[in-house]
Amino acid sequence: MRVHESCRDGSIHTRTTKVGSPETNAIAKRLHCTREDESFSLAYRTRIYDSVVVLLVHLDGFLAFDNGARAHGGCRTQGRTPLRTFWDHVVLLLMVGAPITA
Known about the structure:
The protein is an all-alpha fold. The protein has one domain (21-96). The protein contains 4 helices and no strands. The longest helix has 21 residues, at 26-46. The chain starts with a helix and ends in a 6-residue tail after the last helix. The mean pLDDT is 80.
């Protein structure tokens, strides 16, 4: 509840989505489509996986590329990689002295 109280104190409007339904969350829906279109669909057409472990290694490589090397054009990332966007926000929080908690 601390998050909701902090948001309310800062006049920040929060929204929640129904649990287990990424179709109500546009960001999650786009991630699922990207993962399917650019990784799985292409991978299933070009190679045969011997085990689930090999498939997971391929998925980890795609996610590392997608988050760390591929620039995104969304309104939040503004042409940066998601990892760069994350670190930029961490630096901003440190500059204003906001506590960073996990």
